[in-house]
Amino acid sequence: MKKLSKKLPDSPGVYIFRGPRRKVFYIGKATSLRMRVASYFRRDLIATRGAILVGMVEQAKTIDYVETDSVLEALILEASLIKKYQPAYNTKEKDNKSFNYVVITKEEFPRIMTMRGTELAELNLKPKTEQLKAVFGPFPQGGVLREALTIVRKIFPFRDKCKALSGKPCFSAQIGLCPGVCSGAVTKTEYAKTISRIKLFFEGKKKTLIKNLERDMKASAKNLKFEEAGKIKRMIFALNHIQDIALLKSHFPRSSALSPHESASFRIEAYDVAHISGTNVVGVMVVLEDNEPKKSDYRKFKIHTSKNDDNASLREVLERRFNHSEWPMPKLIVVDGGTAQVNTAEKALKEWGIMIPVVGVVKDEHHKPKGFLGDKTLIKTHDRAILLANSEAHRFAIGFHRQLRGKLK
Predict the structure, then answer these.
(1) Can you give the pLDDT at residue 256?
(2) What pLDDT was estimated at residue 94?
(3) Does 366 reside within a domain?
(4) Measuring CA to CA, which of 39, 194, 311, 408 is 20 to 30 A from 229?
């Protein structure tokens, strides 16, 4: 089976150890199926994972796997398969009652929360009127599940704790994570659609969900509800480009590998826009990895939308860049400009469910750096790299603009 593990794809997914007669022994998720499964055949397995899993590996006969588009979807598929097969070694590693679950309450405006197995067992003893509308799980790792819900909530804002129709927006509503159930900003029918979409996602039916969203988007556009159509379009984009770096960084053992779309180095991407009075508008992306320019990853963009709006041009460049989910993900984004440019980038990333910090390099009247906007710790740690990235972006943008302008003369 060591040879088999080398043939597995270097991508996220779920792996299944099977014993005699294809009995399911153990189910797990991975950022890299190849590296994660290979880790079970290391000499230090007993020290890192314990004697129980060593025994499982020794008895296993085959390994199956299912690739997923993201670690988040691997997490959901893992829970679904554990529920279906009840693998002996998953429950030996951890008591069923300490597993975590996602629940949807049975209310006029349902809440979405996490529960431990013990809480769920107690709730099931209560009258039917207090039963739950849906339960998803079990999820072996509570921390990973909470971060996964944060990603889902950025795409589909939902109610968790606030009092429905209280008249005042809760804190989550103020930061865009609750649709306004508390303040009456969303109707029962509208919110039911959100719950239905979340339910489909946790059932692992992403393709069906996207198909339904595309249908709703077309219907909204046909009825001239362009704001609603745009909102749904952003949901579809976010679902197709789920970025789950938080799930990758903190909660997978050191023996597992990075996703092929996450750089092992500290990758900084810097963006700039160049034009003269709205003509020959271009945007660029430059890349630094571990403080060194990586020119093979530099990219040029001819701006197609607004010709005299730097913020709209920046947003277009970012959207086109993040359409390339096969490119390595940065750990820091640098933009040229002040509050407006930083806000534009942060707003766009939030809409797409991408959690990457943004730093702005503020310039004086001579276009010389005079300060930074953003996370102070990141700025202090990477100030020289940020300035170099910004300088490279400016140089690259001006060069591309002059090249384009020369061709059009």
Answers:
(1) 34
(2) 59
(3) yes
(4) 311
